[in-house]
Amino acid sequence: MSKPATAFATPSEIVQSPLDRLKVTEIFLSLQGEARDVGWPTVFVRLTGCPLRCGYCDTAYAFHGGQWWEIEDILAEVARHGVRHVCVTGGEPLAQKRCIGLLQRLCDAGYVVSLETSGALDVASVDPRVSRVLDIKTPGSGEVARNRWENLPLLTARDQVKFVLCGRADYEWARDLLREHRLHERCDVLFSPSKSELDPRELADWIVADRLPVRFQMQLHKILWNDEPGR
C-alpha cells in the first residue's frame, strides 16, 4: 500500500502483534459532529459491544455483530482516508481491552485521536495523547448508577466531559455536579439536549440564565444526516 499524502506512518512502520484484533462495527469518514473537534473531517472507528443501555442510545446497532479486524488492518483503513482526525467510538470502545493498544498506535502514527467513552469504565490506561470524551450518564439516561466517579480526578485539559440531558431534572443534576466537582476547571464541559426529549432552545436559555461555564452543543451530523448510520 502506498503511503497517503499526509505525514502519518503506514501500518508497516508500526510494530504490532498479529494476535491484536478488535471487533469492529464500521469504519467511515465523516465530519465530527460534536465536542472540541466539531466540523473536522474525521475517520470514525466504531467498535462493537456496550455494557450500557441508555434510553436515548442512537447506535444500538453496534451492540452486537461486527467483524474481527487485526489492528494492522484498522490502521491501514484509517490511513486510506488521508485525514488527520480519528475518533474511536462505539458502543463502548473500552469494553474491548485491546482498544488501549489501538489508541496508542493511532497516536504513534501521528493522528489527532479522540475517544468517545461512557465513563463507566476505567480511563486511566488510555494514552495521554488521546482526548477522552467522557459521557457522564444522567438520571434520564437510565444508567446513572454506572458512572465511574473515580474517572473525574483523572481528567486533564486535553479531555472533555459531555452531558446528554433529557429534561430540566437532568439539567439541574448536571449543573450541580459541575459545580461540586468544578469540572470546568479541569476540562471542557459540553451540555447537549437529548433528541426529541428536550427542546434545544430551552437548554440554551437555562445555560445563559445560570451563566454556566459550559459549551452548548447540538450534534452536527444529526442536523445534516439525521440518524443515518455511517454518517
Automatic annotation (TrEMBL):
UniProt-listed InterPro entries: 7-CO-7-deazaguanine_synth-like, Aldolase_TIM, rSAM, rSAM_QueE_gams, rSAM_sf
Cofactor: binding comment: Binds 1 S-adenosyl-L-methionine per subunit. Binds 1 [4Fe-4S] cluster. The cluster is coordinated with 3 cysteines and an exchangeable S-adenosyl-L-methionine.
Binding site for Mg(2+): 59
Catalytic activities: 6-carboxy-5,6,7,8-tetrahydropterin + H(+) = 7-carboxy-7-carbaguanine + NH4(+)
Binding sites annotated in the UniProt record for substrate: 31-33, 46, 89
Domain of life: Bacteria
Listed pathway(s): Purine metabolism; 7-cyano-7-deazaguanine biosynthesis
Cofactor (UniProt): Mg(2+); S-adenosyl-L-methionine; [4Fe-4S] cluster
Residues that bind [4Fe-4S] cluster: 50, 54, 57
E.C. designation(s): 4.3.99.3
PANTHER family: 7-CARBOXY-7-DEAZAGUANINE SYNTHASE
Family: Belongs to the radical SAM superfamily. 7-carboxy-7-deazaguanine synthase family.
Assembly behavior: Homodimer.
Function per UniProt: Catalyzes the complex heterocyclic radical-mediated conversion of 6-carboxy-5,6,7,8-tetrahydropterin (CPH4) to 7-carboxy-7-deazaguanine (CDG), a step common to the biosynthetic pathways of all 7-deazapurine-containing compounds.
Identification of the protein by name: 7-carboxy-7-deazaguanine synthase
